[in-house]
Amino acid sequence: xxxxxxxxxxxxxxxxxxxxxxxxxxxxxxxxxxxxxxxxxxxxxxxxxxxxxxxxxxxxxxxxxxxxxxxxxxxxxxxxxxxxxxxxxxxxxxxxxxxxxxxxxxxxxxxxxxxxxxxxxxxxxxxxxxxxxxxxxxxxxxxxxxxxxxxxxxxxxxxxxxxxxxxxxxxxxxxxxxxxxxxxxxxxxxxxxxxxxxxxxxxxxxxxxxxxxxxxxxxxxxxxxxxxxxxxxxxxxxxxxxxxxxxxxxxxxxxxxxxxxxxxxxxxxxxxxxxxxxxxxxxxxxxxxxxxxxxxxxxxxxxxxxxxxxxxxxxxxxxxxxxxxxxxxxxxxxxxxxxxxxxxxxxxxxxxxxxxxxxxxxxxxxxxxxxxxxxxxxxxxxxxxxxxxxxxxxxxxxxxxxxxxxxxxxxxxxxxxxxxxxxxxxxxxxxxxxxxxxxxxxxxxxxxxxxxxxxxxxxxxxxxxxxxxxxxxxxxxxxxxxxxxxxxxxxxxxxxxxxxxxxxxxxxxxxxxxxxxxxxxxxxxxxxxxxxxxxxxxxxxxxxxxxxxxxxxxxxxxxxxxxxxxxxxxxxxxxxxxxxxxxxxxxxxxxxxxxxxxxxxxxxxxxxxxxxxxxxxxxxxxxxxxxxxxxxxxxxxxxxxxxxxxxxxxxxxxxxxxxxxxxxxxxxxxxxxxxxxxx
Length: 679
Description:
GO terms for molecular function: 3-oxoacyl-[acyl-carrier-protein] synthase activity; fatty acid synthase activity. The chain is an alpha/beta fold. It contains 21 helices and 20 strands.
């Protein structure tokens, strides 16, 4: 029996287009998961570091004469060389040739689905779409600069299409499967593609996300010489002393479904997407110059389509890249947009600023194609916690920004997210691509109408609950137990039923298994702590399932399951499950109690070191290159011959788009020519 459809309070005039976010996962600098990501935001941590020497030694590429300290900094994910290849049935040979962006996104998508309480078998063969933002091709370049030969998996491991297609293949998904490359706005544009595909009937649900790995110095050097990067490694969004951004990594995934379907299914709804829009800057002074008119039109169209009351917007997660030119342009576009929205709705201008402005780039840097995901997930977590994190390094407001008489204020310290009206909290998220593709997504908190609570079927109170956990190895099983032990203090006693339901029907049963029969959270915690200490208490069961067939026929175990449940003999049920029997847990529930978001799978850390560079890329000093630099404007005028252009830093994919993996990677060409000259 499905959960009832519930009436939802909204800040919009329509509900048919609403899309629920039912699964989330992510890894960002200094944060292996979203819990750590939120903790870092609330503690106002700046996670920018020097570039790890395992990636490259920045000193080899910084030009002392030009004081290129901007090439020194970055935001890095610690586990870039780790991947659980066995879990995904990928050979070490193939995994070594796979771009870490593919590896990390496989793990992100798996944990996103676990967060949603969805098993791969539940969506296999479904019209689920896959849309992923990607713009960086560093691993292909690194392979070409190493002694690694071109092998059968080089192509599939390093093309953008395979990033999405590998997910569709592994999970047997039949919807659209598309990489999206619009530079910095890639992952928010991917969200827009997913929403349109669902609305147009091309898919029933979607997995969407973004990836960005920093593995080569090419783009770092190019962006530094273009005046885009901060020499002191601080992204000072909206500050008078802003001097560029810091490049960063990120890997994230969302699972999206129509809101009505998510409610019917009893999903945990993290937030609701009310609308989105995408446009282009058009013809400007240069390819990378922002256009306030285009940004304003982007926002107006988004809020008009979503029919949003501007008074409900309590926060804008801005692109906020920390550039003296683009930051004021973005704020001016927001001011003009909200002024027009208030006029269109025939509302008086707000007397008190009600909408915060901020940028996550001040905390973690600019994660390229995954930047939109970092911004969106920050907002989703802020909605859940009803708190706005601070934007760092904003000490002296940019003199080109004036917020007087506007709805806006900068969030410079963690602030409770209050609402003046009887409407859900609502926010906008912006991302602007370096080449001019702009994207905006409108997100709203999910609230149920308490007046409908009496219509819900009463949850059956059981004397005890069977909590099941499994993993591919004994080590991972122990890690799973530890994760849940740490998570239990966040739960209430009323969550125990949903905990059992989620773990029984929202996880893939694996070989190494443990089951606990508990009457309450305290007893469950004691049993799990004892299990972790190898001091097993009563009502704790453990087993390893091989490839041998089950001892009982399906009809026999079904009858026994019903009998054990009726007699309250959950211990027998748990013992049968850990021994490998296929238990139909749904018979335990008269109605769907709903799912809980729980910690993701603790993947094994198989080590796949980055290929050693056989020769470093040859970068000329800026003084030796006929390129006119414009400092912090982020634009430059190239005065080169055609042959020189082909050897220039075309590997800078974050700004110009990707090219197919082949032997013409520019840095390799330069290096090979240098070798020939030396010979």
